[in-house]
Design brief:
The complex is a heterodimer of chains A (443) and B (310).
Chain A lengths: L14 E2 L3 E11 L4 E10 L2 E6 L9 E4 L4 E4 L1 E6 L12 H10 L2 E6 L10 H10 L6 E4 L15 H7 L4 E2 L8 H11 L6 E3 L12 E2 L2 H6 L3 E2 L1 H18 L3 E3 L5 H12 L4 E5 L1 H5 L21 H13 L4 E2 L8 H4 L16 H10 L6 H9 L1 H5 L15 E11 L18 E11 L2 E4 L3
Parallel strand pairs in A: 2-5, 2-6, 7-8, 8-9, 10-11, 11-14, 12-13, 14-15, 15-16
Antiparallel strand pairs in A: 1-19, 2-3, 3-4, 6-17, 17-18, 18-19
Chain B lengths: L15 H19 L12 E6 L5 H12 L3 E6 L11 H9 L5 E6 L4 H6 L5 E7 L5 H15 L6 E5 L6 H12 L3 E5 L15 E3 L2 H4 L5 E4 L5 H4 L6 H8 L3 H4 L7 E3 L12 H4 L6 H19 L8
Parallel strand pairs in B: 1-2, 1-3, 3-4, 5-6, 5-8, 6-7, 8-9
Helix pairs in contact in B: 1-5, 1-12, 2-12, 5-6, 5-12
Classes of the chains: A alpha/beta (443), B alpha/beta (310).
Chain lengths: 443, 310
């Protein structure tokens, strides 16, 4: 336990990509082009010029040997909370981008529950200005309703035109079915997904953790899975009725996974994401009363966790997203009931995913890369970064076999509210390249 | 026997041997409480802080008396008179108090896990005097002591906990302790006040109190908090009393001499009728007496004492 966190935030951490760069001896995986090969990549002036076997001796420029490492298209976290504007003490756009790069991400989509929320063109513009010329691309997700209050639609057409890639009131559900119906209908015009935080808050008031055996033992307030299931079921029906695109944020209930599976089988336009903490931890972790196990939706049971793994495996859940939610030490180091919901995830997502999905045989590396580096772009109508000549280099490089221990002092996020501190993980970010810049992970 | 632990945060995980040690020690202290001079020098020079962030009368007084009987120096801290109201965090409050070099902390707090949080920031021994709906270990110990003194054992007896099980730290601590000691435990109350998956703790669930009474050796009647009605968890006090209230009429279904217990404070005429509370079967006031002895035992043992005392 520490009182203060020393964060070294410096633009100097980024390097510009050398004019000529050779990535040597890598395993190159590009699922959208069916590529999985061993070879080299030449990057010139930030653009990939050659993929294949390159004669090192004849190459002039910087060479990075990537023996044992994997190069994939740049990873995206489509569910990040950057606390700027409003809570810059917890995260800024700059520190969030650093944390993303450190964790192997080249793109993040930031959720609108800032102060003020992302419900006007000005805030979209502010975020774009603050993230301009950075290694990490930041795409804002705009609020569905003004002030995220669930009462009036935001100017969705204009917000999307300004750069919003989706709409969501994340952190809060849209409790009115009528409002959600209109949001889905309206969003159809620009074909962006409506991302749902699925929680019937009339059932979760006073809740801290999953309702069940653990909440009974600990005397903490319960958040039942059925409060999630009811909203997932409702919004699937609304998506079917309106024909709009609906994306379920942070699935945590096994029953909800089944609802999404059935909806997909019926051809309803629904997609879904799960977080690394929900597929790797269970409510058992709460027994420590460590407030870094408190997030919404809460950690569920082993049966729910297994259902998430099944959903990831059969493609019901096509995206892994972090729900990176920085909170200050002061707020988290409190009584469990008083501590805010949320944990950071950008810097542990890769390690946790490889440890709990790849090294356990649940998913192949190709499947994991699809869930981070292909499907999120597809869902948000963004171009999928490719590893092929004549496209700008947007790459994530990681070592799938590297073992490491998660250390709080290595995080570049301004906050360190992670339940994975001290965990040993297998699979580690190594390097990201994007927008002519390059960053070596310091984890 | 010594107690090989630094804190008493709950009955979950406390072994049979530990419980036996505490109860045997408490019995010795009980004898001291009968002497003309009721004070022993056991904790002389030790400072105990009673940190009460939630209103409490009997638990606070019981601890305070136990500490005085053991000759400890005492600081009382109640939320009403404290800097908590000025916005100070729990951690800062406790750090400040610890900086005054205290040895033991007795803490009552409305949030489950608050005593566990304290153990991470202070060096003192921490005793949980009730944390929200989680645990209240010294209450369970005094309940078990009362049963053992009256019935001679805990193994194989049947204890029924009746009332609001969902929000009851007393129920939880009793369940852990009694199950560890080999008792059969029944819980009975409206289905909306029985928490999910409680069967997994090895208890049997009943919704009809008339089925419970003939099987029980002990009825431990829990306090019904009136705010639960507003939360929609039961429809009216009238219906609650008619279906779950323990009345003399109902006790006629008992097949053996029943011990009637209540952790207090009672709502007479709601969960328990006055003629039951004041009946010859009621050991409610003895619970209070044993409470002091049990708390003396816990304080003494956590401070490093052995179970043989003089």
């Amino acid at each position: 336990m520490k009182l203060t966190k020393t964060v070294i935030i410096s633009r100097k951490a980024y390097q510009s990509v050398p004019r000529r760069l050779l990535l040597k001896n890598a395993r190159i995986i590009d699922p959208s082009r069916d590529v999985d090969m061993r070879g080299d990549i030449v990057i010139q002036d930030g653009v990939i010029t050659q993929v294949g076997q390159v004669n090192e001796a004849a190459f002039e420029g910087r060479i990075i040997d990537l023996t044992g490492k994997v190069v994939s298209p740049g990873w995206m976290d489509m569910h990040t909370h950057l606390r700027e504007p409003g809570r810059e003490d917890e995260e800024t756009i700059e520190s969030g981008m650093l944390a993303a790069a450190n964790g192997g991400f080249t793109t993040v989509c930031c959720m609108p529950n800032t102060q003020p929320p992302i419900d006007t063109q000005e805030i979209i513009q502010y975020i774009k200005d603050r993230s301009r010329n950075a290694l990490v691309d930041v795409h804002p997700i705009a609020a569905i309703t003004k002030g995220r209050e669930g009462k009036e639609l935001t100017e969705i057409l204009e917000l999307v035109e300004q750069g919003a890639v989706a709409i969501s009131d994340d952190g809060s559900p849209v409790m009115s079915a009528e409002m959600m119906r209109r949001a889905l209908e309206y969003s159809r015009m620009v074909d962006v997904p409506v991302i749902g935080h699925e929680e019937d808050i009339t059932m979760t008031e006073g809740g801290d953790i999953n309702e069940g055996y653990t909440s009974t033992c600990l005397g903490l307030g319960g958040i039942p899975t059925v409060a999630e299931d009811i909203m997932v079921a409702r919004d699937i029906m609304l998506a079917e009725y309106t024909g709009a695109r609906f994306h379920v944020a942070h699935l945590s209930s096994g029953k909800s996974v089944e609802l999404v599976r059935q909806a997909k089988a019926k051809g309803i336009r629904v997609t879904a994401e799960a977080t690394p903490h929900h597929f790797s931890l269970t409510e058992e972790a709460v027994r420590s009363f460590d407030t870094n196990t408190k997030m919404n939706p809460p950690l569920r049971t082993e049966a729910d966790r297994r259902a998430l793994l099944e959903g990831l495996k059969d493609g019901t859940i096509e995206v892994i997203a972090t729900d990176h939610a920085p909170h200050s030490w002061e707020e988290k180091e409190a009584e469990y009931q008083r501590a805010p919901f949320g944990i950071i995830g950008l810097e542990t997502a890769l390690g946790v995913s490889l440890t709990h999905l790849y090294h356990t045989g649940v998913l192949t590396l190709v499947q994991i890369i699809e869930k981070f580096a292909v499907n999120p772009y597809r869902i948000l109508n963004l171009p999928i970064p490719g590893i092929q000549p004549d496209v700008p280099a947007n790459l994530t490089v990681f070592d799938p076999e590297a073992e490491w221990q998660v250390k709080e002092e290595r995080f570049l996020s301004k906050s360190s509210n992670s339940p994975f501190i001290g965990h040993r993980l297998k699979g580690k970010p190594f390097l990201v390249i994007n927008n002519h810049q390059l960053f070596f992970s310091t984890l | 026997m010594r107690l090989d632990r630094k804190h008493l945060l709950g009955m979950d995980g406390v072994t049979r041997e530990e419980i036996t040690t505490i109860l045997n020690t408490a019995r010795s202290f009980r004898e001291i409480l009968e002497r003309p001079i009721k004070r022993v020098p056991t904790l002389q020079g030790k400072t105990v802080v009673n940190l009460f962030f939630e209103p409490s009368t009997r638990t606070r007084i019981s601890f305070e008396l136990a500490e005085k009987r053991l000759s400890a120096d005492i600081i009382n801290f109640t939320a009403a008179a404290s800097s908590v109201k000025k916005g100070e965090t729990l951690i800062d409050t406790v750090r400040n108090i610890e900086a005054m070099k205290i040895d033991m902390v007795v803490v009552r707090h409305s949030s489950p896990g608050a005593p566990h949080l304290l153990t991470r920031v202070v060096d003192a021994n921490v005793i949980n005097a009730g944390d929200g709906g989680h645990e209240h270990p010294t209450q369970a110990l005094l309940d078990m002591m009362t049963i053992r003194e009256k019935l001679g054992r805990l193994q194989d007896i049947t204890v029924a906990l009746v009332g609001d099980i969902s929000h009851s730290r007393v129920a939880m601590s009793n369940i852990y302790g009694l199950r560890t000691m080999g008792a059969r435990v029944l819980v009975c109350g409206p289905s909306t006040l029985i928490p999910k998956d409680i069967e997994r703790l090895g208890v049997e669930v009943y919704y009809n109190v008339d089925e419970v009474i003939p099987q029980a050796d002990v009825l431990n009647i829990l306090r019904l908090q009136l705010e639960r009605q507003r939360q929609g968890l039961f429809p009216s006090l009238r219906e609650y009393h008619n279906y779950f209230g323990i009345t003399r009429e109902r006790l006629e279904k008992a097949t053996r001499t029943l011990l009637i217990m209540h952790p207090g404070p009672m709502n007479r005429g709601v969960e328990i009728s006055s003629d039951v509370a004041d009946s010859e079967h009621s050991v409610i006031l003895e619970q209070v007496t044993y409470g002091v002895a049990v708390r003396m035992a816990v304080l003494y043992l956590l401070a490093g004492g052995k179970s043989e005392i003089n």
